[in-house]
Amino acid sequence: MTLSDIERQIKACQECPLAKTRTNAVPGEGNFSADIVFLGEGPGKDEDLQGRPFVGAAGKFLTQMIKSIGLKREDVFITNIVKCRPPNNRDPEDDEVSVCTELYLWRQLELVNPILIATLGRHSMHRFLPKNFKISQIHGIPKKVTNKKTGKTFNILPLYHPAAALYNGALRETLENDFKKIPKIIEKLR
Ligand code: URA
Predict the structure, then answer these.
(1) Which atom of ligand 1 is nearest to the CA of 53?
(2) What is the extent of the structural domain holding 51?
(3) What spacing in Å lies between the alpha carbon of 189 and ligand 1's midpoint?
């Protein structure tokens, strides 16, 4: 099973109700052996229309921050917890998230096998850390976590979601500062 096989499966997926309302599934894209994976929540309107992750306003900001640390989008892997847009951008239901992560996300992460997973926003962070962890307290601090089901260990870096930071000056500065720490964190973990 390769990442391209998973991509094909995602594009044809009918395993949850989001399949009925999506325009395009959004498997993710980038370097299949990236050192870092950026993990968002789910596709928005632009992503649903184009079938690509982070291509709207938040995506442009993310791309800009990736460039600010000397990388290109093609150097990293970008994906989401759920691969199909929830209607009207509602939060995905728990069972939509668990089907999608079990079928696709954990396998994608296993195959890319990045040094670091930067979670974007609290929903993404809470796939790895319990609900009592607050993003306001642990953003920018790398954490080692073990997936209870697979036993696999990941290094995650909780970051604010670029959409939240886009129009909030203080959050924006915090996110930009956390981004600047990424190269050193990867170097240290390597
Ligand atoms: N927000 C996300 O969480 N993911 C995307 O792909 C786009 C916007």
Answers:
(1) 6
(2) 3-189
(3) 27
